[in-house]
Amino acid sequence: MQTGLRKSQGCPDEEKTALLIHMYRTMRRIRRFEEVVADLVAAGEAKCPCHLYIGQEAIAVGVCAALKPEDTIWGNHRSHGHYLAKGGDMQAMMAEILGRQTGCAGGRGGSMHLVAKQAGILGTVPIVAGTIPLAVGAALAYKLQGKRQVAVAFLGDGATEEGHFFESVNLAALYRLPLILVIENNLYASHLHLSQRRPLDNLDQIGALFGIPGVRVDGNDVVTVYRTAVEAVDRARTGQGASLLECRTYRWRGHVGHRWDEDVGVKRRDELQEWLQRCPIERLRRSLLLELGISEELLNALDEEVEKEVESALHFARQSPFPAPETVGEYVYS
């Protein structure tokens, strides 16, 4: 399946082509990083729980490509992709996952507690729906301070069933806050399918009761995600209030860990094989080759660069020291 770049964008200029290549490279960075982390988990070298983003790369990349460096994103337990897409340092995240002192949280947070203030990542939170009120608080601060910044909350479909979600959406709607809620709907909350949790498949409409417009998009089409995010960002930045994006996608690995996500019965195995054919990276690659005439040599060279970058990040992490045992009491309340 192609993205229809020529039809919808016209003859691409250098800026558009550069953006598409940037998005391709960023998705490749996320994918390869995650594959290496999966190997580390399988080997027992990564001790912390790791929730992998493989298969969902187009959402983080498409949304973050529409943001400015000063805009903030708020992630959850599955946020390696969000971190890299927004500009977080790969070496610092790899070191964090391996519990090293040079990690982005000093080796104390692990895979689910990522931070990169300079890139607008003020912290990820593994508590389901826990990042939503934080994003709303940031958006409220921007409005009170007269800033043109935008806050983005990435959340799973399961987070829409938490009280935090509805309280936050109501507040954001009431004060017309510069907020974007990105629902990464991979159809499963841990192991339970959406149809077993909700009578209607209508997450794109869940903000309508509060006056927040929602839209459902193909979360495996990075171009569509990007265009939709641009509109939502413009709406937020110009004082028109919050928006909700439901991005339909599928995780390839288990809810947590390195294994392929085939642990919840035959239905899941059949679905996975179908979604593997919808790989967001291969989809964009085909479009770059066939629709824009980008050379395969250029894309292969980018892939090689990514491979070296990930290898370098792993080497950096492995060479970094663990936090000193005597510092175990630091950064805690007594």
Characteristic terms for this protein:
single chain, 334 residues, alpha/beta, Rossmann fold, five-stranded parallel sheet, two-stranded antiparallel ribbon
DSSP strand count: 7
Structural class: alpha/beta
Number of individual domains: 1
Unreliable residue runs: 6-11
Count of discrete alpha- or pi-helical segments spanning 4 or more residues: 11
Overall radius of gyration: 19 Å
Q: What is the fold named in CATH at topology level?
A: Rossmann fold
Classify the beta-strand content into a percent band. Answer: 5-15%
Task: Please list the strands of the largest sheet in the order they lie side by side.
Answer: 1-2-3-7-6
Q: Judging by the overall fold, what is the CATH architecture?
A: 3-Layer(aba) Sandwich
Helical proportion, percent range: 40-55%
- What is the N-to-C succession of helices and strands? HHHEHHHEHEEEEHEHHH
Q: Class, according to the CATH hierarchy?
A: Alpha Beta
Report the average pLDDT across residues: 90
Query: What is the CATH homology-level superfamily?
Result: Thiamin diphosphate (ThDP)-binding fold, Pyr/PP domains
General description of the model:
By secondary structure, the protein is of the alpha/beta class. The protein has one domain (3-321): Thiamin diphosphate (ThDP)-binding fold, Pyr/PP domains (Rossmann fold, 3-Layer(aba) Sandwich). It is 44% helix and 9% strand. A 5-stranded parallel sheet has the order 1-2-3-7-6, sandwiched between helices. The chain has a two-stranded antiparallel sheet with strand order 4-5. The longest helix is centred in the first third of the chain and has 30 residues, at 14-43. The chain is globular.
